[in-house]
TrEMBL record:
Catalytic activities: ATP + protein L-histidine = ADP + protein N-phospho-L-histidine
Enzyme superclass (EC): transferase
UniProt-listed InterPro entries: GAF-like_dom_sf (IPR029016), HATPase_C_sf (IPR036890), HATPase_dom (IPR003594), His_kinase_dom (IPR005467), HisK_dim/P_dom (IPR003661), HisK_dim/P_sf (IPR036097), Histidine_kinase_KdpD (IPR052023), KdpD_sf (IPR038318)
TM region positions: 12-31, 58-75, 87-107
Enzyme Commission numbers on file: 2.7.13.3
GO molecular function, one term: phosphorelay sensor kinase activity
Intracellular or extracellular location(s): Membrane
Membrane topology annotation: Multi-pass membrane protein
Protein name (Swiss-Prot/TrEMBL): histidine kinase
Keywords from the named record: ATP-binding, Kinase, Membrane, Nucleotide-binding, Phosphoprotein, Transferase, Transmembrane, Transmembrane helix, Two-component regulatory system
């Protein structure tokens, strides 16, 4: 419809200008002007048509129409297209060629002027966009600037939808001179469409959709009204891509800023929590030691048959548990702050395991812990006290999550570059929702039974911190051979130890 309207406008302009030139020629004849003046009038008409119509074809058409009108009205025989004087043929050819050249030059100049104007406008839009985006403080501000700039570029409605990872999806649409905040329908589906995109853009009956890709993922989607023609999109393709790149850089910058602020806040919270825990734990150690000493002295002064003996034992055990928890908190906060240095010395794994097992069996004399160690004797670089604490915590965790009759096994084996220590039990295993959070500080399972509610989520967090400080790895999972859980941690061997293990494995 738009094309037909423009075609009609151009034809009317052409007909009007050629008709005007003809009337002016008639007036020149009446005034006795020579025919050369009439030729100049028609050349002017062709020039005007080329200037005020869109498309070189109208200039050519006006040149032909001017030639025919000149022949019909101003050369003998009049009011016919017949030519009696051969000299007129030369005039016609020169007039036609001159008209065509004039039309072509005018059309080209007009196109160059139009392109220069568009480039100037685009450069101005891009400059304003870059300047405004650099000042944008949040994601919504970027979307508003993007929607306004793209709407200005195409002179049509446009929108920008944020589907990145920092915050909820946001959709800003520029409709005329107003900006509308719309809801985003199915952002995950939108991400899915663009993650598998094989073309430059998507389209539906309402709009064109262009992706705004960041460093690692899709950041936003730009929406352009379908009233914009494909040809116009192609014409402004390069400039549109420049706008999309600027939007991507701005959104990337804001996402990075949000991540840094969040990380800084998390670090500050962790630091404050660690300082609070350290202060509380430090203040609790002395009174707990006093309670344990007093209860132990009272137990020695009380007959074993006395009912108070059991109460005193309970006080002592609870104080001992609290003291162990306090020591764990202090150890964890110091490790995380780097205040405990790892002093690695060559140690026998068997001895470390034996000390940890003995410690746990003293606390739980009714439990039997099985031990399996390699036949070959090896020395592994480690901080013996800290690794013993890791094994003790893992065994303590196994005891709390198994019944008295269920087996607990601690074993060690060598690989080419590490020693792997495993603690297995035959309990109920680990709930699937708990597996990703096993080593998170203060995480406790919501599915465990009431008899193991005493833990506060410190033991496994300490294990992970110590093992990582040794350059090792630790995992927790359910057993595949039977019910129960297993925890494995690996400590790296020194180069000399690796070579020894490799020689043993190859038989050399």
């Amino acid at each position: 419809m738009e094309k037909k309207r423009k075609f009609a406008e151009n034809i009317i302009k052409l007909a009007g200008i050629v008709l005007g030139a003809t009337l002016l020629g008639k007036m020149f004849v009446a005034l006795g002007f020579p025919e050369t003046n009439i030729v100049v009038v028609y050349l002017l008409a062709v020039l005007l048509v080329a200037r005020f119509t869109q498309g070189y074809q109208y200039g050519i058409l006006s040149a032909v129409a001017s030639l025919l009108c000149y022949n019909y009205y101003f050369t003998a025989p009049y009011h016919t297209f017949a030519v009696n004087d051969s000299s007129y043929l030369i005039t016609f050819v020169i007039m036609l060629v001159t008209s065509l050249v004039t039309s072509a030059m005018t059309t080209k100049e007009k196109l160059l002027t139009k392109e220069a104007k568009e480039r100037g406008e685009e450069s101005q839009i891009l400059y304003m966009l870059s300047s405004r985006l650099s000042d944008a403080a949040d994601i919504e501000a970027v979307l508003r600037i993007a929607a306004e700039s793209i709407s200005l570029l195409f002179q049509k409605n446009a929108g920008c939808i944020y589907v990145g990872r920092q915050g909820a999806p946001v959709y800003i649409q520029q409709v005329g001179g107003e900006q509308i905040h719309r809801s985003v329908q199915k952002p995950a589906e939108l991400r899915g469409k663009f993650s598998n995109l094989r073309t430059e853009y998507l389209e539906d009956e309402d709009a064109w959709y262009y992706p705004v890709n960041g460093r690692e993922h899709l950041l936003a989607v730009v929406e352009i009204d379908k009233a914009v023609r494909t040809e116009e999109l192609e014409e402004k393709k390069k400039f549109l891509h420049s706008i999309l790149e600027n939007i991507a850089m701005a959104l990337d910058r804001i996402e990075i800023t949000i991540e840094r602020v969040r990380d800084r806040e998390n670090m500050e919270r962790e630091r404050e929590r660690a300082n609070l825990l350290r202060a509380i734990s430090h203040d609790l150690r002395t009174p707990l030691s006093g309670i344990m000493g007093t209860s132990e002295m009272l137990m020695d002064m009380t007959e074993k048959e006395d009912k108070r003996q059991a109460l005193l034992q309970g006080i002592y055990q609870d104080a001992d548990w609290l003291k162990a928890m306090v020591e764990n908190i202090l150890s964890l906060t110091r490790l995380q702050d780097g205040k405990i240095l790892i002093h690695k010395e060559p140690e026998a794994v068997e001895e470390i395991i034996g000390c940890a097992v003995a410690h746990v069996e003293r606390s739980f004399p009714d439990r039997v812990i099985q031990v399996e160690t390699p036949e070959e004797f090896r020395l592994v670089p480690m901080d013996a006290k800290l690794i013993e604490q890791v094994i003790t915590n893992l065994l303590d965790n196994a005891v709390k999550h198994t019944a008295p009759g269920e087996a607990i096994l601690v074993s060690a084996r060598y690989t080419e570059d590490s020693v792997v220590i495993t603690v297995r039990d035959e309990g109920e295993g680990i709930a699937e929702e708990d597996v990703p959070n096993l080593f998170h500080l203060f995480y406790t399972s919501k599915t465990r039974s009431a008899d193991v509610k005493r833990g506060i989520g410190l033991g496994l967090a300490i294990c992970e911190t110590v093992v990582k400080a040794h350059g090792g790895t630790i995992v927790g999972r359910n057993r595949t051979d039977r019910k129960g859980a297993e925890f494995l941690f690996a400590l790296p061997l020194e180069e000399g130890e690796k070579a020894d293990v490799q020689r043993k494995n190859t038989g050399h």
